[in-house]
């Protein structure tokens, strides 16, 4: 039988892992990458961008960082070098078509009437079908010239949640960027895409306002503060203070022990848990509270957050369970003390001729440049790639968690998987395990449950993932149930979910990528 063709869209960390595993099972991977290089988000960053996840958590399971990288949080270019050596080591480069953008995908042989009648995924529960294929509409990303259409047996979407489509806030009538005549408005995406000289010339000697308080916003504010000092302070406009951590060792205790061990997961409710585990999570809840307080008191004291009005009103558990864990750049509050960064809080803002207006103030924040570090709309990218209105509807999840079984498979979209949309504390590690799970499924190692069971499971997970995250639940995130989630993938693949030797190690030692290197 002819080997099956698998289209992998995107050559970031998810696409690379998908390529490696499909190759290892004898499929023919064809990777489409709109950019000219591998690495996805890491190819276009600020000059100061570094990992926020410690490198031992952000690595492929069977491919350690080189000894020459000694930093706990390597810089973006070190991440790129690491990804490049991974791609070279596993012979992935020759399978990637660069500067090739997939405009849309169309399922041939899928009719809406047929889909309605299915009880099993794709009608049969099988990964492939002889009469159903995906047709890809492909263009040259530099010229938009159409390239040949490609027909494949399976599609793995690795198009990235935090790239390409900016999230632009809604503004009142006449209060959008067009009202701002005195300067320029950019999204962090555009700023990150500039070469470093152009970017630093752009902010030099300018009054810059940065909107947001996540990683890009904090890094941007630091870049502006370093470039301009107190003479032209950078205003950092945010809506909600978050627990932005100074480091990953609150009071000397590794954060991974507090939140990435089986013991830590005993303290919280998990989807599909037994009555005993449910009860344990209630009985042990004081320890859960204590762990959160360890982090909160550390972050508060270390920087004297109260002085800056930056003590969040919500608990750390809410932030970590929503993957809202931006690391604070070194010397951030020194820049605030120096007057190089001005912190401003407002629930909403709008543009006027000279800059930005915020609630409760009559004068604008005068600006030459406003940079919106307001996140991305990966959800729209995911939805828009389908030509079928039915599949677009399936992928509409504005206000909820992404409806994917095991965070990979939509029960009603056949012969297709999505990797990299539900976040984790280490997106690389999670993407790798998912790619392994998908390729084991393609290889026939296990079968999917019925559509009904998958939908029930998805609803269960949605309830659980939003339980602790409160208003931030839109950021589908597995951070506090990562081992529980990995256990399920392992069990499906026939692996022993216990990844460490001995009861104590299994219970208390943090789990990371290297624990999942072999079955
Ligand atoms: C500034 C920044 C810092 C981050 N730091 C961390 C961190 O420290 N730890 C962590 O765990 N996560 C971090 N992340 C999250 C990061 O998104 C993931 O770690 C990971 O790199 C995502 O990889 P990906 O392959 O899923 O997606 P991406 O890296 O977004 O790659 C998607 C790729 O798909 C391509 N593509 C998209 N659409 C198409 C199409 N239609 N046709 C062809 N190609 C297409 C894109 O060009 C891109 O190369 C960070 C994100 C950002 C933006």
From TrEMBL:
InterPro entries assigned to the protein according to its UniProt record, in alphabetical order: FAD/NAD-bd_sf (IPR036188), Flavin_mOase (IPR000960), Flavin_mOase-like (IPR020946), FMO-like (IPR050346)
The cofactor named in the record is:
FAD
Any Pfam family = FMO-like
EC code: 1.-.-.-
- Keywords noted in UniProt: FAD, Flavoprotein, Monooxygenase, NADP, Oxidoreductase
A GO molecular function annotation here is: NADP binding
Q: What class of enzyme is it?
A: oxidoreductase
Read off the PANTHER family from this record: DIMETHYLANILINE MONOOXYGENASE
Query: Which family does the similarity line name?
Result: Belongs to the FMO family.
Give the protein's recorded name: Flavin-containing monooxygenase
This protein's gene is called LOC111469790
